[in-house]
Amino acid sequence: MAAAQNVPQPSAGPGAGQQHAEALDAAEVSRLRADFPILETQVGDQPLVYLDSGATSQNPRCVMEAEQQYYEQFNAAVHRGAHTLAVEATDHFEAARAAVARFIGAGDDEVVWTSNATEALNLLAYAFSNASAGRGGSAAERFRLGPGDEIVVTELEHHANLIPWQELAFRTGAALKYIPVDAAGALRMDLAPEVIGPRTRVVAFTHVSNMLGTITDVAALVALAREVGALTVLDGCQSVPHLPVDVKRLDVDFMAFSGHKMLGPTGIGALYGRRELLNAMPPFLTGGSMITTVTMERAEFLEAPNRFEAGTQRISQAVGLAAAVGYLDEVGMGRVAAWEERLGARMADGLAQLPGIRLLGPDGVARIGTATFDVEGVHPHDVGQFLDARGVAVRVGHHCAQPLHRALGVTASTRASTYLYNTEQDVDAMLNAVADVRGFFGAEA
């Protein structure tokens, strides 16, 4: 892949690939793997098999080089000062915003930098809370909530798209409702019209379940929200890295996602919001760089995105994320999605053939390359340690989705999640290791 350039180049468009693009092939994946130095790691005497990209993806060299180059050549505070370095740093910072905005099909002023998706979702919830307290004037009325109003989420949600709305309901007196899942973990879309009603003000839901990898019917939920005039908030943490995503086609009002799950650095995330909504919404964090006029009694705020970016910004991280989306665009998001679909099917089919292994989630639904499972008689932490001894890195625990685990009748699980740099051999190594777990722990019948 191309090395980092002096200024991050805007991506070609929302997801560059097509939804039904031809998958990557094994030779291409092998070439891509050479861009990720960490994949050469040995775990003891075993080669690393990294199947935890759902938690944090690995970084190609171009991302690390972009951050290093920024610090070596352009480091300065952005939007402050008129000296050469300050101007160049600002140019890089805003070029990065443009690149990420184009990657998801948004306008440059519709992307707000945050530390991660959790902060982005909290930004929204607290901004709505401020509007509910009277901040923002008449322009912010549409964000005001109070007793009698309802916020709707789903039982699929990561805690980051659940707890902020619980807290908003507590602060405002609004009611929190949710669309449940069935016994297999499928969202009960048949019940959605009963849950989303005339009192619904916000509908917040995940695009892709971080635990199961299942893909939500965004269009159906957006249509129900539109019928009652509710705002829509999409958790894109597991979709933006793995699928072609165009926020305008999805027709959502807001979307949150994180850089570290899509080949980018940690410490950088983003909130997409429709321009007119961001400009009407009162800020969450306040301080320097987000104001127009300040007196000892009051302040007036800039338009978005600046009004939500108080203080010193995540400059090098934004530059690194721009390099990451450039890399993904060059590969093609449609091709990434098709390859991961193949790997995910291989994992699911292989796990289904192993005795004592329960693959979690509904059958016959669209998924990204993620498989989550329960091993009969063995705690997931033990499963994870056994696999780690074989060099296989997976996620164990409740994956910040305790309500979904509870609905499926388990307290914890093991999750294997793929990305563009994983191979069929990686999947087979995981399956072979899982096949030996129950025997090792004496859990076989």
From TrEMBL:
TM annotation in the entry: none
UniProt cross-references to SUPFAM superfamilies, sorted A to Z: PLP-dependent transferases (SSF53383)
Keywords: Pyridoxal phosphate, Transferase
Pfam families: Aminotran_5
Enzyme Commission number(s) from the entry: 2.8.1.7
EC class name: transferase
Record's keyword annotation contains Transferase: yes
Cofactors demanded by this protein: pyridoxal 5'-phosphate
Segments of this protein annotated with the region Disordered: 1-23
Reactions that this protein is recorded to catalyse: (sulfur carrier)-H + L-cysteine = (sulfur carrier)-SH + L-alanine
Domain Aminotransferase class V: 49-429
Protein's job: Catalyzes the removal of elemental sulfur and selenium atoms from L-cysteine, L-cystine, L-selenocysteine, and L-selenocystine to produce L-alanine.
Family named by the database record: Belongs to the class-V pyridoxal-phosphate-dependent aminotransferase family. Csd subfamily.
Protein name, entry field: Cysteine desulfurase
